[in-house]
Amino acid sequence: MERLDPEKLSVEFRPGVTTTEPILGRKYTLTHSDITAELFLTIGLEFAHDKITTMRDEVLAEWRSSNSGLFLYVYVYVGNFGSTMNAIRNTIFRRELPLALEAIVYGDNKFFTVHPQLYYAPIWIYFDSTDYSYNRFEYWGTPMDYK
Hints:
This protein has 147 residues and is an alpha/beta fold. It has one domain (6-146). It contains two helices and seven strands; from the N terminus they run E-E-E-E-E-H-H-E-E. InterPro entries: Staygreen (IPR024438). Residues 4-146 form the Staygreen protein domain.
């Protein structure tokens, strides 16, 4: 796993969210710059649609509740770009997701310090694609795996 360079991570908290609250309704939008390799994490009550580009290479995540407890739901858009491009995007997302998850955990570290039980919450990732072979819902460990 490529390690996160904290100096390349910028974190923005939007109105309605603090460094420690809320849990439910807390949404993460992670984008990046291909030129500078910087990562931009926006934490808010809504996804940062203003940061999403036509490339659709962002990682979206939010805390959700189920009968089993809280979990981190992550969404990536593999897409509807044709079989070759879908395959490339799927490969890139799978390669970069550990770094993205590390950025979320590191960037929201005060939140995890106040809610340490969330380090052990499951992470479920939805790979959204019109191509059946890439359209999947997968378990990716816990935030502790990316600390």
